[in-house]
């Protein structure tokens, strides 16, 4: 497969066209950002860790019957994915209260949310990814009712799979965001799943093992990501 020109460069990944119009290459960079890009830093090994972490998780989800765009690892920092027509809506599930939910509602961090909450956000960096609902998504043409229903169902199926997976490694899946796209008329999981886009806590100590270590200046960001991977059996060598 021939890697061609860059299609898009996000906060931590770059997307490249290939000689196959239905395939893209994702390049996971060492860049890390927080607070809508206001704080940025390059962390050694991060691109490699997130690339391999994402490949592992996408494989587990595929095994559980959840369609994803992931196809194969290409190198330590690159993978091949199906090209999707992305839906500009982020789906967020929260199993415990943290982050934006705590700030918005003033609830105690760490309380168990039963049932888990489900939220939608418009993927728009310039507007700060504002919270939306199904009605807004339909009215403004961001997603159809059928797409929204399927996205919600898949997001909760992901929750069932990954809550158990992380718990087996002594970790709590606090919350996470997912992005979806369309290919051949099917809603498919896109983007990535890594500690950049979810919150993970040690189940016993509740030590943070995700990007909050960067946001909150706790240090040991990549070491925490690698520890998460080690507990899941991911080989970063």
Summary?
The protein has 6 helices and 13 strands.
Assign the CATH superfamily of the largest domain: ATP-grasp fold, B domain
**Strand segment count:** 13
**Separation of the first and last Cα atoms:** 24 Å
Mean of pLDDT: 96
Task: Give the radius of gyration.
Answer: 17 Å
What class would the helix/strand composition place it in?
alpha+beta
Largest sheet geometry: 6 strands, antiparallel
What fold name goes in the CATH topology slot of the largest domain?
D-amino Acid Aminotransferase, Chain A, domain 1
Helix fraction, binned, reads 25-40%
Count of the separate structural domains: 2
Order of helices and strands: EEEEEHEEEHEEHHEEEHH
CATH class of the largest domain: Alpha Beta
Strand content: 35-45%
Count of DSSP H/I helices: 6
What is the CATH architecture term of the largest domain?
Answer: 2-Layer Sandwich
Any idea what the shape is?
globular
Low-confidence stretches: none
Please, could you describe this protein's structure?
The chain is built from 6 helices and 13 strands. The protein has 237 residues and is an alpha+beta fold. The protein folds into 2 domains: 80 residues, Phosphorylase Kinase, domain 1; 136 residues, ATP-grasp fold, B domain (D-amino Acid Aminotransferase, Chain A, domain 1). The strands form 3 sheets. Strands 8, 9, 10, 11, 12 and 13 form a 6-stranded antiparallel β-sheet that branches. It has a 5-stranded antiparallel β-sheet with strand order 1-2-3-7-6. Strands 4-5 form a two-stranded antiparallel ribbon. A hairpin with a 4-residue loop joins strand 6 and strand 7. The longest helix has 24 residues. The mean pLDDT is 96.
